[in-house]
Amino acid sequence: MRIMTVMGALGLLAMILTAVVASAKEGEIWSEASSPHFILRTNAIPDVARKMLEDLEKFRSTVGLISNLAMDTDTSPPLVIYAYEKVRQYTRRMDMKGTAGFYVVTQAGPVSVLSLEDGEEIWQIKGREVLYHEYTHHILNQYSSIRYPRWYDEGLAEFLSTMRFENDIAILGHPPIHRFIALKQAGHWLTMRELLESKERYIGNLGSSSRRNPDRGKSGTAFQYAQGWLTTHFLHNSAQFQDGISPYLVAIDQPGANLKTAFKDAFGVSYEEMDDAVREYWYSYKLPYSTISLVDRVPQVDIHVREMHAMEASAVDLEARFATGMIEGDEDEAVEAFTNLLEAGIRPEQMRRHLTHLAMAEESWETAHKYIDATLTHTPNDPVALTLKARILAAEVGKEEIDATRAREIKEYCLRAIKADPSYVPALISYAEVSVLDNQTVDDTSLKIIESIRFLAPGLMAGKILAVKVLARTGRVEDARLLITSFLELPTSRTEERRFKKLLKEIENLADADAN
């Protein structure tokens, strides 16, 4: 293990960038690099694209090694990345001043947009760090059945976000410098109890608006991220505490778990003693980093790089904004660009799906059917297209107007999608949503589909609500009540907590009605 010393005061500067949304310059060259789990579109040189995909595949495998997750069978859509060579290109064209990148999860799969250029200041977060952080969440949500407490979920994502590679060596533990701004306010840190017992919830405001301590800032989230990273860094590098991480995470994920007792059982110390140990670690000003050999532990992958067509390159900014839900105001321009690409035979199936979504947003149902039917003519077993067809059928009449005939048609498309890809969660969700309508009967297929959703996407809010509704609709009210109660033990936000409490009240009323 090598030691890196962290020194120096940090200042917070604001980047002043234009807010005008620009477009790719004429003649700008873009490349597309693809591997089994990633698609990268970038205006950087092809060698940079290839190296980034190599690192991303290594990162994915390394996270699997660290978290002991089996990731061999992966049928999820690849992560699509739009990577700008320069910060100013990213900020102007995406209208995202003050950021280095972002990541969203859509029904079509995860999408990230970022800058490959590092900021001039050491404290500025890097686009690659944003991507690594969010992709860590993706891996944990996709492959782990454990519901991680918020401090560890964000702390581990921060811990792994600074991973670097030197040939077949992964280097872990470099600090995310931007978190030091909060950590330097050690007198205002969250206590270990506050940090660990926030469960899955973001802490948010510290006290009421009238009683808040202004020295701690308006929100505890900054401390939650920073201290989550520091505590995770400490635990993973501690010979005394490292082995307690997994037993602790498993123990607190059990219904009715006593968090304080689980902590003491796993680590052998109290909250206060751990608080002292983490503070001592921080004040040592020495943060160790470690290396992991990837030789014979990471599968070899094929990476294909192609130069994008000039017409395709000219539309890449529109596509990035469309893919991340930021196309508002540019819909007509996007329709024109995607139609031109379709007519030119450039990624035709993808362009048809893009145009389908744009038509649905405008409630142009005839146009939406036209494009998705053309897709199904070319690829009749495409689960994405089949699910889109089902959603068009549902949306064009509205939830309240779905009769037995329409419901049967929607379910048939969903079942075809599920048969093509049993792990495609949007198809499972679409089937379940129709099943819980008041005029529908919850059958054995619905129950099996709910089980699949809970297994494949345990953290998905829609899946949790549908699971409760299906149980209640089948008369298993007590099971529905217990399931909501388990969700309330680790809510991700106060909004989710309120939503579950409202749903619990509905279930209680249903139970009272049955009793009478």
Strand order of the largest sheet: 5-6-4-3-2-10
Counting helices, strands and paired strands, the structural category is alpha+beta
Instruction: Report the biggest beta sheet as strand number plus sense, adding barrel if it closes.
Output: 6 strands, mixed
State the shape: globular
Uncertain residue ranges = 1-22, 207-212
How would you state the average pLDDT, rounded?
84
Range of helix content: 40-55%
Measure the end-to-end span.
Answer: 67 Å
β-strand amount: 5-15%
Q: Count the DSSP helices.
A: 22
Q: Report the count of strand segments.
A: 10
As a whole number of angstroms, the C-alpha radius of gyration is 25 Å
In short:
The protein has 22 helices and 10 strands.
Q: What's the layout of helices and strands?
A:
Elements: E1 2-5, E2 31-35, E3 38-42, H1 46-67, E4 79-84, H2 87-94, E5 101-106, E6 109-115, H3 127-143, H4 150-161, E7 164-166, E8 169-172, H5 180-183, H6 192-196, H7 221-236, H8 245-252, H9 259-267, H10 271-283, E9 286-293, E10 304-307, H11 310-314, H12 316-323, H13 331-343, H14 348-361, H15 365-378, H16 383-395, H17 404-420, H18 425-435, H19 444-456, H20 461-473, H21 477-489, H22 494-515
Parallel strand pairs: 3-4, 4-6
Antiparallel strand pairs: 1-9, 2-3, 2-10, 5-6, 7-8, 8-9
Helix pairs in contact: 1-3, 3-4, 4-7, 8-9, 13-14, 14-15, 14-16, 15-16, 16-17, 17-18, 18-19, 18-20, 19-20, 20-21, 20-22, 21-22
